[in-house]
Specification:
single chain; transmembrane; alpha/beta; seven-stranded parallel β-sheet; GH; 29% helix; 642 residues; extended; Immunoglobulin-like
Length: 642
């Protein structure tokens, strides 16, 4: 097949007779016209179908033609502009409907003689807007003038309203609560004074170690004598001596009993039907009293009184227990607290807190459970019995709520109320989920550290630290206008606590635990703890990471050392580690498992026993190989990774 036939075949499209290349070029220069495809009726009308054949004449191929009568060229195409009228009675097909749409036909020549036909629907007539002259006819129309002014005023009114609204949102939006600063007794430390020494002689040491408060233990028999001249003079001297250095005074009292000379007890003896009589616990003469034992001495806790009755005396001879559930006894304790606070005391700790309420009608005590009992004890020992009638009685929470509210009210939220012993059962001292004291003493941290080294001491210490803080964090505290909303533990230790852990190491490890360190003055002085290290620790305690940061406890990969972190977002974290081992079998410890700690630590403080060569303050150490000496402690900072 020659080139002309091949080109003609390419131009064979549905419903359109192809033109020669010359005609296509001429048609391109002529005005464009619209065509439609011949419908089936038109084809039938001309007497041929849509089948095409190619005939050869004289050995040459001819242009394709439709079989039939041999319609002339162009007869199959009809002009749409007025020429495409369908015969009457014929229903147009879908193709006819599409063919009736105006089509723009373009003939595009190519260099090799081929011609390409491009067919496009003509665009609908474009929608044009009004001209300027047409618009100006309405410029002064009253309706449009009013509408323009209305929209103008409405726009500026809405703009002004949004501006004022933004100011109101900024002003009235809830503010992010600023972290509540710690109160003086939370900042600590609190130092226990030596009652045998003059107050003035202890002031320089207290000042050197940066104590925020001192604790004076008032002799137990003087608890209800604070309004006497002798005790008042002693307390005034105490407050004035340490007040010159802005050191607050805390007093320990023993509110459980009065002596035989006390006016309330004398009134109770003389007037069996008086209110004073109900402030004590009695048993009628001739009746065997319960088997309650004395705490301070061997034998029964019941004593014969001069009125021929038995009276409860758990704390020794001539000391008679108050029943603080009764108004007369409770008012006596409140009067004592007011007297102390009125003389400038800013903190009070109560001794023997679990004994403050007694079941006046209680019967015999039951022995301890065999699993809990000390097998070496007998029925004559105090620890053999459960003491459910005289300890942890229901109502302790209500009693402490009255007392702590009194202290806060009398000191405008500056003072605090606490205890001197481990409360053991915090739920007894709580009311509706609120622990009714400011700084409880709770947990086995001190006891674990007393055990010193051992194969599982680090694991046990971690467990007890986590348990103590988890348990105590379940309670809120009575709002006092200062401090945090959670109980702030007392972290107490004394010379007996240092049997296995030296004073410097104990202090470094203890000071950044959540709570306030409480210790006798001689612990630091005799333990050769430098004032510089304590000053550095107090600076760390003033940082956001300590005061408001998260607290987590860890052991190393082999669970042989104990560590914890303190971290507040946006601040450097603190990493504190204590090596309890007494041998140097291993000198580096892996803490890379701590989430978010980073790969490097910067040492900021070491204890006295720390003796790793080339490691000191500002030294960087890898977190997966922290170097530690036996019985040593270290504090480092780190940049959290997330």
């Amino acid at each position: 097949m020659d080139e002309s036939v091949r080109n003609s075949t390419k131009l064979d499209i549905e419903g359109v007779r192809q033109q020669s290349a010359t005609e296509a070029l001429r048609a391109e220069s002529e005005p464009k016209e619209s065509y439609r495809k011949l419908g089936e009726p038109d084809v039938n009308r001309n007497g041929f179908d849509a089948t095409t054949t190619i005939r050869a004449e004289n050995g040459h191929h001819a242009m394709p033609r439709e079989n039939g009568t041999g319609a002339k060229d162009g007869e199959e195409e009809r002009m749409l502009n007025g020429a495409g009228v369908e015969p009457s009675g014929a229903e147009p097909t879908e193709k006819d409907k599409l063919a009736q749409k105006e089509v723009e036909v373009k003939f595009i020549p190519s260099q090799n003689g081929d011609a390409r036909i491009d067919m496009e629907l003509e665009s609908q007539q474009a929608l044009t807007g009004m001209t300027k002259e047409e618009l100006m006819k309405y410029a002064n129309d009253p309706f449009w003038v009013r509408l323009r002014w209305l929209l103008f005023v409405l726009f500026w009114a809405l703009w002004g309203a949004m501006l004022l609204g933004s100011f109101y949102i900024i002003y009235d939006a809830p503010k992010c609560a600023a972290p509540v600063p710690l109160s003086w007794w939370q900042e600590g430390p609190l130092v226990e004074l030596d009652g045998e020494r003059q107050f003035a002689d202890q002031l320089p040491e207290v000042e050197r170690y940066g104590a925020k408060g001192v604790i004076y233990r008032l002799p137990a028999d003087e608890t209800y004598l604070v309004e006497t001249a002798a005790v008042q003079g002693k307390l005034k001297q105490l407050v004035s001596t340490f007040g010159t250095k802005d050191v607050k005074v805390v007093v320990d009292i023993t509110p459980n009993y009065v002596t035989k000379e006390d006016a309330l007890f004398q009134e109770a003896l003389q007037k069996p039907d008086s209110v004073a009589h109900s402030a004590f616990v009695w048993r009628e003469a001739g009746m065997k009293p319960p088997n309650w034992l004395s705490i301070a001495e061997e034998g029964s806790a019941w004593k014969n009184a001069s009125n021929n009755q038995y009276v409860l005396s758990q704390f020794g001879a001539d000391r008679y227990d108050l029943q603080l559930g009764e108004p007369a006894a409770r008012d006596k304790l409140k009067a004592t607290l007011k007297a102390l606070l009125g003389q400038g005391v800013r903190g009070v700790r109560l001794a023997n807190a679990k004994h403050l309420l007694i079941n006046r009608d209680g019967g015999d005590e039951a022995p301890m459970n065999l699993e809990e009992a000390d097998k070496s004890l007998t029925h004559t020992d105090y620890g053999f019995w459960t003491h459910k009638e005289t300890t942890y009685r229901e109502g302790l929470g209500e009693l402490f709520r009255e007392l702590v509210e009194l202290v806060h009210e009398q000191t405008d939220g500056e003072g605090f109320l606490s205890v001197t012993e481990d409360i053991l059962r915090p739920e007894v001292f709580a009311v509706n989920g609120t622990l009714q004291m400011d700084a409880p003493l709770y947990g086995n941290i001190e006891f674990d550290l007393r055990e010193g080294s051992g194969p599982d001491v680090a694991r046990k210490l971690r467990h007890d630290i986590e348990n103590a803080y988890r348990t105590i964090s379940e309670y809120a505290v009575v709002a006092s206008g200062a401090g945090s909303g959670k109980p702030w533990l007392q972290l107490r230790y004394d010379r007996a606590s240092l049997e296995h852990v030296p004073a410097s190491e104990y202090t470094v490890f203890h000071f950044l635990l959540p709570g306030v360190p409480v210790f006798p003055l001689d612990v630091l002085a005799r333990g050769n703890v430098s004032s510089e290290s304590v000053e550095t620790l107090e600076k760390f305690r003033a940082t956001p990471s300590f005061q408001h940061g998260l607290f987590n406890v860890y052991t190393d990969a082999n669970a042989s050392t104990i560590a914890y972190t303190r971290l507040k977002s946006g601040n450097p974290g603190y990493f504190v580690v204590l090596n309890l081992a007494s041998t140097d079998q291993k000198t580096t410890f892996d803490f890379s498992g701590i989430d978010g700690i980073g790969s490097e630590l910067t040492v900021v403080l070491t204890s006295q026993n720390y003796a790793v060569p080339n490691v000191g303050v500002k030294t960087k150490v890898p977190v997966d190989a922290v170097p530690l000496s036996p019985k040593s402690a270290l504090i480092a900072t780190y940049v959290p990774t997330k």
